[in-house]
Design brief:
- The structure is a single chain.
- By secondary structure, the chain is α/β, with parallel strands linked by helices.
- It has four domains: 12-228, DhaL domain (Serine Threonine Protein Phosphatase 5, Tetratricopeptide repeat), CATH 1.25.40; 251-326, Alpha-Beta Plaits (2-Layer Sandwich), CATH 3.30.70; 335-452, Rossmann fold (3-Layer(aba) Sandwich); 454-555, 2-Layer Sandwich (Hypothetical Protein Tm841, Chain: A,domain 3), CATH 3.30.1180.
- 49% of the residues lie in helices and 17% in strands.
- It has helices at residues 12-36, 46-64, 73-87, 90-108, 116-134, 143-158, 165-186, 188-193, 198-215, 264-274, 296-306, 317-326, 344-352, 368-377, 390-404, 423-431, 439-452, 492-504, 522-533, and strands spanning 251-258, 275-283, 286-293, 308-316, 335-341, 356-359, 382-386, 414-417, 454-460, 465-467, 470-472, 477-481, 484-489, 510-515, 538-543, 551-555.
- The longest helix is centred in the N-terminal third of the chain and has 25 residues, at 12-36.
- The protein is globular.
Length: 556
C-alpha cells in the first residue's frame, strides 16, 4: 500500500501484509538457515526457531485484528509483540521477539506529524538497541551486527525529508545483506566453514520481506566474500568434537516468567553467573528467559526467586548434537495422540486416555512451536493430533507438515491432524482410539466419530454484537451450536436446555457435558434436564475447568 511521505500512521494492512510475506519467506528458508549453523550447541535450529517466532506473532496479530485490515491497529500491534514473546524459541527466536516487540511499540507510538520513513527508521534503531540490551554478552558477526547495519542505514537515509518508508526498508535490507556477507570476517568459525551467520541470514530474510511488502520487488541472493554460496549443504559435524568441551554448558533452559521489572536485574546477574548465551526479553510483567547452563535447577530457582516461571523447556546439548551428527537420532515407534486441552479437568481427561497434552483452547490458541514440540518429543513414529478448537486446526496442520518434511527425521514420523473443532469432539475421538488398528483405520474411525458428535456450548456475551440468533448485550447468555451462536437468553439453565433440545432433535444415545470454571452446578442441572426430557439417553458429566464456557456439550 502506497504511503505519503509525511503520514506518520503505518496502516494495519501494511503490517498484515508484511507478516504474511515474512512468515512464508522464513518457511521457505527454514531448512537452509538451519543448515548454516556451525556451532554444535547454541542454536542448531535457528531457521526453525525464527520461523516459529514470526509465525506465532503473525497468528496473534491476525487473531487480534479478526483478519481484517480495518481492525484496531494498536491492539493488533500489542498482540503481535506479545505473540512473538510467547512463541519465541531458541537464542535467535528470543532475540528476534524483542526486536519485533520494539518495532511494534514504536509504530504504535507514532504521531501524524512524523513521517513514515522517520518512524520506521527509528523503529529499526530501537529494535537494534533492544536486542543488544537483551543479550548478556553480545558477540559481533551475529544477527546483532546485521541488525545494527540495517538500522544505521535506515536512520541515515531517513534524514532526507523526501524519502518514503519503502526507501528506508530497501536501504536497510541492502545493508543487512552486505553485513551478513561480512560475518565470516568477524567470526573465525564462520570463516572456517565458509558460511554466513544463521541468525543474521534469518534477519536478512525478514528485512527482505519488509522490502517486498512495500515495493513488490524480490531481493538479490546473498553470497559470501569467501567466494562460496552462503547457503551450504547441511554439514553436521563440520566443527571439531572438542568445540563441545566438558567445560561448556550442558543444557539450554528456557521459560516464560511472570515478574516485575524490578526483579529482572537481579535475575540477569544470577543467570549470567551460572552460564552463557543469556537473553532476557519482555516487559509489562511477562518475560522470556533463555540461558545455557550446567545447573538446570539453579537456573529455574533463579526464576522462582524473581517471580513465577512457567512453560519451562530444557534441552540437553549432548543429545541434540548426537542427533545432528548421527542423522536419525533415537528410534521412534508406537502411536501417540497429541491433544489441545482448554482446562485442567480436560487436560486430566486427555492424559488419562494416554494423550500428550498441549494447553490451549478458545482465546488462548497454542503456538505452532508448542504443538511441534509435543509431536517430536513424544517419541512415536505415528502421531494423531486433536486440535479441539477451530482456531488451532491450522496451527496443528502447519506443525504436522513441518514434522513430516523435516530432513532430520528422515520420514520417521507420520502425522495425521483430525480437524476437531471442539473439546467434546476430541473426547469423542480419543474414546475410540485403538492402537492395535492400522494407522489409517484408527485415524478414519476417530475422524468419523468426531464428525458424528454434534457439539454445542454455553457462554456469556462480553460485548454488544449481532448474532445469528439476534442482537446480544454484555452479560447475555449465549448458546452455541457447531460454532455458531444459536440462542440468546438471560438464564444459563434455559439456554443450556435450548441447546440440548436442538442437539437432541435429531436423536442421540449419549450426551457428554463438560463443566467449566465457576459453572455452579450448571452441568448437573443440564444432566437432570436430559433425564426429564430424554430418559432413554445416557449422560456423562466431566469437570473440565475451561475458561469462557461454563458448559460444553456433545451428542453422539
Amino acid at each position: 500500500m502506497e504511503e505519503t511521505p509525511r503520514s506518520g500512521i503505518i496502516e494495519l494492512a501494511v503490517v498484515l501484509r508484511f507478516v504474511d510475506i515474512a512468515t512464508d519467506a522464513l518457511a521457505q528458508a527454514r531448512e537452509e538457515i538451519d543448515a548454516l549453523n556451525v556451532y554444535p550447541v547454541p542454536d542448531g535450529d535457528t531457521g526453525t526457531n525464527m520461523y516459529l517466532t514470526v509465525s506465532a506473532a503473525r497468528d496473534a496479530i491476525r487473531e487480534a485484528a479478526d483478519g481484517s485490515p480495518n481492525g484496531d491497529r494498536d491492539v493488533a500491534l500489542a498482540a503481535f509483540g506479545r505473540g512473538a514473546l510467547l512463541g519465541a524459541r531458541g537464542n535467535s527466536g528470543v532475540i528476534l521477539s524483542e526486536m519485533l516487540g520494539a518495532i511494534a511499540r514504536r509504530i504504535s507510538a507514532a504521531t501524524p506529524e512524523e513521517r513514515n520513513a522517520q518512524v520506521m527508521a527509528d523503529a529499526l534503531r530501537r529494535a537494534t538497541e533492544a536486542s543488544y540490551a537483551a543479550v548478556g554478552r553480545p558477540v559481533e558477526g551475529t544477527m546483532l551486527t546485521v541488525a545494527r547495519a540495517a538500522s544505521e542505514a535506515a536512520v541515515a537515509l531517513a534524514a532526507d525529508p523526501s524519502v518514503r518508508a519503502r526507501d528506508v526498508f530497501t536501504a536497510a535490507a541492502r545493508a543487512a545483506r552486505e553485513a551478513l556477507a561480512r560475518t565470516p570476517e568477524q567470526l573465525q568459525v564462520l570463516k572456517d566453514a565458509g558460511v554466513v551467520d544463521a541468525g543474521g541470514r534469518g534477519l536478512s530474510v525478514i528485512l527482505d520481506a519488509a522490502e517486498t511488502a512495500l515495493t513488490g520487488r524480490r531481493p538479490v541472493p546473498v553470497t559470501s566474500p569467501l567466494g562460496r554460496h552462503a547457503i551450504p549443504i547441511p554439514h553436521a559435524g563440520a566443527v571439531p568434537e572438542h568445540d563441545l568441551s566438558p567445560d561448556g554448558p550442558a543444557y539450554e533452559v528456557m521459560y516464560l516468567l511472570d515478574a516485575t521489572e524490578a526483579a529482572i536485574p537481579v535475575l540477569r546477574a544470577t543467570l549470567d553467573g551460572l552460564g552463557d548465551s543469556l537473553v532476557v526479553v519482555g516487559g509489562d510483567g511477562l518475560w522470556n528467559v533463555h540461558v545455557h547452563v550446567d545447573d538446570v535447577g539453579a537456573a529455574i530457582e533463579a526464576g522462582i526467586e524473581a517471580g513465577r516461571p512457567h512453560r519451562v523447556r530444557v534441552t540437553h546439548f549432548a543429545e541434540q548434537v548426537a542427533e545432528a551428527r548421527h542423522g536419525r537420532g533415537r528410534e521412534r515407534d508406537g502411536r501417540r495422540i497429541v491433544a489441545v486441552a482448554a482446562g485442567p479437568g480436560l487436560r486430566a481427561l486427555f492424559e488419562e486416555a494416554g494423550a500428550v497434552v498441549v494447553d490451549g483452547g478458545p482465546g488462548r490458541r497454542p503456538s505452532t512451536g508448542q504443538v511441534l514440540e509435543a509431536i517430536t518429543a513424544c517419541g512415536a513414529s505415528e502421531v494423531v493430533v486433536l486440535p479441539n478448537d477451530a482456531d488451532s486446526v491450522r496451527v496443528a496442520q502447519i506443525a504436522g507438515q513441518m514434522v513430516e518434511n523435516d530432513p532430520d527425521l528422515d520420514g520417521q514420523v507420520r502425522v495425521a491432524v483430525i480437524p476437531t473443532q471442539a473439546q467434546v469432539q476430541g473426547l469423542a475421538a480419543i474414546a475410540v482410539h485403538e492402537p492395535a488398528r492400522t494407522f489409517e483405520q484408527d485415524v478414519l474411525e476417530m475422524t468419523a466419530t468426531s464428525r458424528h458428535a454434534r457439539h454445542g456450548a454455553v457462554t456469556i456475551a462480553a460485548r454488544q454484537a449481532m448474532t445469528m440468533a439476534g442482537p446480544c448485550e454484555p452479560g447475555d447468555v449465549l448458546g452455541v451450536i457447531a460454532g455458531d451462536f444459536a440462542v440468546v437468553g438471560q438464564d444459563l439453565d434455559e439456554v443450556a436446555g435450548g441447546v440440548l433440545g436442538r442437539l437432541l432433535a435429531g436423536g442421540g444415545e449419549l450426551v457428554t457435558l463438560v463443566s467449566g470454571e465457576s459453572a455452579d452446578g450448571l452441568a448437573e442441572r443440564a444432566a437432570a434436564w436430559v433425564d426429564r426430557h430424554h430418559p432413554h439417553v445416557d449422560v456423562v458429566v466431566y469437570d473440565g475447568g475451561q475458561e469462557r464456557y461454563p458448559l460444553l456439550l456433545s451428542v453422539e
